[in-house]
Write a structure and sequence with these properties.
Blueprint: H1 3-20, E1 23-28, E2 31-39, E3 45-51, E4 55-60, E5 64-69, E6 74-80, E7 93-99, E8 106-114, E9 120-130, E10 135-147, E11 157-160, E12 163-167, E13 186-191, E14 207-210, E15 215-221, E16 224-229, E17 236-240, H2 259-268, E18 275-277, E19 283-289, E20 300-305, E21 311-316, E22 323-329, E23 337-342, E24 348-352, E25 359-363, H3 370-374, E26 380-383, E27 390-395, E28 400-407, E29 412-420, E30 422-426, E31 433-441, E32 446-453
Antiparallel strand pairs: 1-2, 2-25, 3-4, 4-5, 5-6, 7-8, 8-9, 9-10, 11-12, 12-13, 13-14, 15-16, 16-17, 17-18, 19-20, 20-21, 21-22, 23-24, 24-25, 26-27, 27-30, 28-29, 28-31, 31-32
Length: about 450
């Protein structure tokens, strides 16, 4: 099947989506965005993760994990672990991380529970994802006995270089954040089997950084680990997380700008945030947006906030280590916002923390013209599929400007600029698996498809 034929199928799915889901339009600066409700009347959706097979996974605080198939817009419940989850206040099933690019795909979950003494704790578990049955099966307990509470639990997960990072809150006990014998108020790092990396800053400990109050956003981009953190009544923060660093809580709120804070910062080598808010905005989930579909947000950290119900765009400098502008959007449009997710096609997904608790997609429908995509001008053939050593690509009419290849984790593994109708990719250097092929023509029209690399 050619890409042109597949585009007709995608067009049909989009049209079906248009008539089956609620849809409206909003304006971001000079850009008009279509908004569509993907799921509604949920039980506090908390974490969103997009995967390149056109799926959007999400957790619900009560103890559910589901997947939205973005092609047919169907929601599938993968597992319900609510019997072992204690979901009171801000606790429950919270963060998630996904690794589909392995022999046995796994999803990692963090949730709060009560032990036999009625004490709150937090644990991280791995689950095997059976894509054929679209279900999760318990695999392994990775880390347990993290101090927790009905609030200040942190509980954001992120995967990077086959290691799992876990944010934890101070569990309402501020002294724990500076206590290196406690796992509360930290960013933790473990291997995917639960063992401790040999190069962690403290030998035999999962602690990666400390001095945190309640970090509820954690995202890796631009070779940095960005974090959003709730302050008390002042100084919500955006931090860049670095191994072995102290971020100051509870002795420092925001920057080291008061006399007692300066002393502690100097004595404890505290790392300051790259941005802080007073009054607070109630920081929640973060993502990084890098696409020209919404130029107002390009090369920015997107921050979901609970207070005043807004999405904040934080434009980064060229080095990506400093925030140069701060802009607010969607104020009181969708209610309190819990999480935000992006994908490489320029779409944005939002989880709301207000009734009716929904997941919303925002995209610039004018960025890529469906009518143009479906014309024979953009017919492309590629073979063989599955590919072993080589993948050949041929455009019928338009010159190809750029080829990008993404693995199933969404990591770009190839970015090739060209100006030809025919090219050949060396696929021998990539692992066997499912990949997403993104083709950009010289007039900026883009098409996508799935390819399989199989080294037999």
């Amino acid at each position: 099947m050619t890409i042109n034929q597949k585009m007709y199928y995608i067009l049909f799915a989009i049209l079906l989506f248009t008539f089956s889901k609620s849809k409206a339009q909003i304006t971001i600066g000079n850009t008009s965005l279509d908004t569509s409700t993907l799921a509604n009347h949920l039980n506090t959706p908390w974490d969103l993760i997009y995967t390149p097979d056109s799926s959007l996974f999400f957790t619900e605080r009560i103890g559910k994990v589901s997947r939205i198939d973005l092609i047919n817009n169907q929601t599938h419940l993968l597992i319900d672990i609510s019997p072992k989850v204690e979901a009171i206040g801000e606790s429950g099933l919270l963060g998630m991380a996904i690794n589909l690019n392995m022999a046995v795909p796994r999803i990692y979950l963090v949730y709060t529970y009560k032990d036999s003494n009625n004490t709150f704790f937090e644990k991280v578990e791995s689950y095997i994802y059976d894509s054929n049955q679209d279900t999760l099966l318990f695999d392994n307990k990775l880390i347990d006995s993290i101090p927790a509470n009905t609030y200040h639990t942190g509980a954001r997960l992120v995967l990077h270089n086959n290691q799992l990072y876990i944010s934890t809150g101070d569990a309402g006990n501020t002294s724990l954040s500076q206590d290196l014998n406690s796992l509360a108020g930290k960013i933790l790092r473990i291997n995917l089997n639960g063992s401790i990396p040999n190069d962690n800053p403290i030998n035999g400990s999962p602690i990666y950084s400390w001095g945190h109050r309640n970090p509820q956003g954690l995202y890796f981009a631009n070779n940095f680990m960005y974090s959003s953190e709730h302050g008390p009544t002042t100084d919500d923060e955006i931090n860049i997380i670095t191994k072995g660093e102290n971020y100051g809580w509870p002795n420092v709120h925001g920057f080291c700008d008061l006399a007692n804070e300066i002393t502690f910062c100097n004595d404890s080598n505290v790392t300051e945030p790259i941005y802080a808010w007073t009054p607070t905005v109630a920081t929640a989930g973060i993502s990084y947006y890098e696409h020209s579909a919404i130029p107002e947000w390009n090369e920015s950290i997107l921050l979901a906030t609970l207070k005043d119900s807004r999405l904040i765009s934080l434009k980064l400098n060229s080095a990506k280590d400093s925030i140069v502008t701060h802009s607010e959007y969607l104020i009181n449009t969708f209610g309190r916002l819990r999480d935000v997710e992006t994908n490489s096609w320029g779409e944005v997904f939002i989880a709301t923390n207000s009734t009716p608790h929904r997941i919303i997609k925002l995209h610039n429908a004018n960025f890529t013209s469906i009518n143009e995509i479906n014309s024979h001008k953009y017919e492309v053939k590629y073979w063989p599929n599955p590919a072993n050593e080589k993948l050949k690509i041929k455009s019928s009419n338009s010159k190809i400007n750029n080829i990008q290849l993404y693995n199933i984790d969404g990591k770009e593994v190839l970015n090739k600029t060209t100006a030809t109708k025919n090219l050949e990719l060396n696929t021998s250097v990539f692992n066997s698996g499912l990949y997403i092929l993104k083709i950009t023509f010289d007039d900026k029209i883009q098409i996508i498809n799935k390819v399989v690399i199989d080294h037999y």
